[in-house]
Glycine C-acetyltransferase
Amino acid sequence: MTSQKLNSFLEQNLQDLKDNGLYNEIDILDGPNGAEISIQGKKVINMSSNNYLGFSNDERLKVKANEATDIYGVGAGAVRTINGTQAIHEELETKLAQFKQTEAAVAFQSGFNSNMGAIPAVMTKNDAILSDELNHASIIDGCRLSGAKVIRVKHQDMDDLRAKAKEAVKSGQYEKVMYITDGVFSMDGDVAKLPEIVEIAEEFDLITYVDDAHGSGVMGKGAGTVKHFGLQDKVDLQMGTLSKAVGVVGGYVAGTQNLIDWLKVRARPFLFSTSLTPGASAAIIEAIDIMSNSTDEHDRLWDNGRYLKEGLKKLGFDIGASETPITPCIIGDEKLTQTFSKRLTEEGVYAKSIVFPTVPRGTGRVRNMPTAAHTKEQLDTVLAVYEKVGKELNVIQ
Ligand code: PMP
């Protein structure tokens, strides 16, 4: 017998989501993620992955993953602090620190885990965290878990940040105050104003934390948003994911040796969740080596981003204020956005709709993620389909 209370809770809430068009049906891919994907037999051009550099199915990474699996096995066998630290994990962390130009780095099993581990490890209930209102869910959860007072800052509003930093510090209520922000915001593609942020942080002695999930591999010739602005010595915690541009899975935090030593004894996913697989670790090392030695993929990504943006703009679409390859196509009305995305898929272009609550009400959008793996021919097809569907649904004239 299962719990009646649980069953009615589940049935009621699932039905509510379905009634309100908020139930997310999961699409199942038949094969690898790439510029083109197959979803249950239907081939579509994929404009919705975070596989920025096309590494998720790259032969060079696959070879390294297989070699490492042969040497170390498929699983690490334990958490890092017991005996789940293999030489490949140490090598990965050394590589990450070199790539980020920091003293040290620690790897986690995901970007989500990195935030859930690092934020509560450094912030406590005696502290305050100033957090951009559009920060990622893993930042929000990590902040909550820390028990610190969370103060929301208007999106990219430096006056609001300054005022709230001043108030928090002057109040004398907190031992430490942190400002935490995405490096690149995933829904709009705008870039954190790090030079101003660092200036404010210096003025008020704020700890700075940049979640560069969408900046790593994309900004700063691959090394990230902090590197893009040349601020490696001014940001305390640089967090990133290994699942987007790097194409594999995992996350990390880079910073001073003291910081990393502390995270390795206090960040709970490091202590209580099994390490990254050896295969994933080796594939990540290969991706970092490729990014360190060549900007070919990075340059193709930016070139494709510019091409798509110019094309959509020329057609009359509102592509917002993105400063990166992330290309939102803002439709507005939620229902229309969903219909638009559905019609794109029927025409062979897979670009997911993003609506409230992920973005503010009335700013529904179809988000396009061009990658280094797309060809110009594929992007031309995408533009032709956008023109057809845009005219059909009166989004453009
Ligand atoms: N931070 C940001 C800003 C993200 O966009 C994401 C991924 N959606 C994450 C963290 C989590 O990364 P991962 O997928 O590696 O867990």
